[in-house]
Design a protein that fits this description.
The chain is α/β, with parallel strands linked by helices. A 7-stranded mixed beta sheet has the order 1-3-4-2-5-6-7. Bound molecules: guanosine-5'-diphosphate (GDP).
Length: about 210
């Protein structure tokens, strides 16, 4: 098996939908609670320190778009981490609005990779996200993060417990670790395979019809 390389460049940092780049590529968006390990995972997938790993959870409030050259090029979209309790109500509402608006309206969105801390499983905001995704019929893949924090002998049991009450997803959830390089290549391959299986005309109706749609 030849491993695919992803070459990523930042193309947009958006604080509101009018700052989104044109949706000319299928989009794979990464979402999860603040501090779940999203930036570390994006960096591991792209093999570059491109997303900022932060010790101050909840700092990223923008949606960052990376153009990725892969077998099938795509936009990797880094959604702001959610659920950080210290933030004010207004700020959290603004965040939720940005993420929810993106999920509900973005025609080029092909898949959301929902990151969930392997130690905690789904928490309330994760269920909220799952609800938005299901209402908007967005395909979702779940990746549990920081698997190295659970001892190897306990991982299978924790995994079984977490997946018991999950909604339907694209393929089986994975558990990954960037720290110990567990299943990062597998996740990249799963996304490559998903992109390869997307219809050629995935973006077509939007191009022909609604010119105002980004
Ligand atoms: P984000 O807020 O979701 O983007 O999370 P970051 O990638 O910034 O990571 C938050 C913290 O978790 C950092 O201190 C990382 O070093 C740590 N971290 C990220 N991934 C892993 C992992 O796979 N294993 C362990 N043990 N720590 C991780």
């Amino acid at each position: 098996m030849t491993e695919s390389a992803w070459l990523g460049t930042l193309v947009a940092t958006s604080y509101s939908p009018d700052q989104f780049p044109r949706g000319l590529l299928p989009e794979i968006a990464f979402a999860g609670r603040s501090n779940v390990g999203k930036s570390s995972l994006i960096n591991a997938l792209l093999k570059r320190r491109i997303a900022k790993v932060s010790r101050d959870p909840g700092k990223t409030r923008s949606i960052n778009f990376y153009m990725v050259r892969a077998d099938r090029p795509f936009h990797l979209v880094d959604l702001p981490g959610f659920g950080f309790a210290k933030r004010g109500k207004k700020e959290r509402a603004q965040w939720a609005g940005l993420i929810e608006g993106y999920i509900a309206k973005r025609k080029s969105l092909a898949l959301v990779v929902h990151l969930v801390d392997f130690r905690h499983g789904m928490l309330e905001n994760d269920r909220q996200l799952q609800h938005w995704l299901s209402v908007n019929r967005v395909p979702v893949l779940i990746a549990f993060t920081k698997a190295d924090k659970i001892p190897p002998t306990k991982r299978a049991g924790v995994y079984q417990k977490h997946i018991r009450d999950l909604p339907e997803t694209m393929g089986a959830p994975l558990y990954v670790s960037t720290e110990k390089n567990i299943a990062v290549d597998e996740l990249r391959k799963t996304i490559d395979d998903f992109l390869a299986a997307l219809p050629e005309d995935f973006l077509k109706p939007r191009k022909r019809g609604d010119l105002k749609q980004k």
